[in-house]
Amino acid sequence: MQVSLTEGKALNISCLAPSCDFTFTEPILEQYLTEKQFTRYQQFLLAASIRADPNRKGCPAPDCTGIISRNQNLDFQKDWKAPPYTECDLCSKPCCFECIRDYHPGVNCKQFERELRLKKLLTDEEDMKKWQKDNDAKPCPRCKVSF
Q: Chain-wide mean pLDDT for the chain?
């Protein structure tokens, strides 16, 4: 069981005996595993279920373990926004389901990504120059990468 958890396997954890076809259920695993191992198992199980469902993804917020769902049939909601708008079920972060970035109405994901790259490129260049100056970085004589 510990090997399966270390490898991130959460579905169909079976007995290792060659002649046994027993598959451990969640309540049985809870009895056999430490609290830390069982928590890890539940995290892997959630991740596996999200990967298996094309209408669910993990929240893009760094410290959030919530789930975002494809915004379907929500016409009845007062403040309904057109897909791909969605919100995290835990932290309520609004985002685009397709690209899992901030919601960007009126701009498709590809255009939004292009805008982000342009902004990021400028910021990265400025940050790199500051880091090089602060750390007295020198370029490699061969490849010119700073070190």
A: 78
